[in-house]
Specification:
Elements lengths: L10 H16 L6 H8 L13 H25 L4 H18 L1 H8 L10 H21 L5 H23 L5 H4 L4 H12 L4
Helix pairs in contact: 1-2, 1-3, 1-5, 3-4, 3-5, 3-6, 4-5, 4-6, 4-7, 6-7, 7-9
Length: 197
């Protein structure tokens, strides 16, 4: 008995949603257009009408991740009582992405997604997220020149990224962090990422 082909109403969006889920469950390395097609009940050729290859689909997933991160940065700034608090909440938004969507985070920041053959849409989305980060850093230090703002943003980001790498890699053990609670450790990392503490 052969399976009747399924005509999807919006296959492009369904592919992106399925890819986002697959990136979280199996990681970006395991993404397969064939597997996604089978899971959606369409022919294995159908995804290629929307994405020429798996890299193009991963670029779309990563671009949407950067757009979400940009929106989180903007919301953090808009909801904060002052520029220093806004910078702290911006840093917290980055940590939230890493810990709530680790597969997407790995695609965006630990893969070669932003390599030389990245799509223009992905590069634009990543650039916009970076501009939002720089805007928060500029507002927190309004008298600083551009080089100082970028130094602060990149060194702060590096502190957060290093912490994320240690946590996600299972490198932080209880004997290393006790008597600090998880919340205390997180606040200490946020302090250091902002040049405080």
């Amino acid at each position: 008995m052969s399976r009747r082909p399924y005509h999807h109403g919006d296959l492009r969006e369904a592919l992106v949603a399925a890819a986002q889920a697959a990136v979280e469950t199996s990681g970006p390395e395991a993404l397969s257009l064939r597997d996604l097609a089978q899971s959606l009940g369409v022919s294995t050729a159908a995804p290629y009408r929307h994405f020429p290859d798996r890299r193009a689909l991963l670029d779309e997933v990563a671009a949407r991740g950067f757009a979400d991160l940009d929106a989180a940065y903007r919301a953090a700034r808009a909801g904060a009582p002052n520029p220093r608090a806004a910078m702290r909440e911006t840093a917290r938004a980055y940590l939230n992405l890493a810990f709530s969507r680790p597969g997407l985070f790995r695609l965006m920041f630990a893969s070669d997604a932003l390599g030389v053959d990245a799509s223009p849409a992905l590069l634009a989305a990543a650039g916009q997220a970076w501009e939002s980060l720089y805007a928060a850093a500029r507002a927190a230090e309004p008298d600083a020149d551009l080089a100082a703002v970028k130094r602060r943003a990149i060194t702060g980001w590096s502190t957060l990224h290093g912490f994320i790498t240690l946590v996600q890699g299972g490198r932080l053990k209880g004997f290393m962090t006790e008597p600090l609670s998880e919340a205390e450790l997180l606040e200490a990392v946020l302090d250091k990422s902002l040049g405080e503490g």
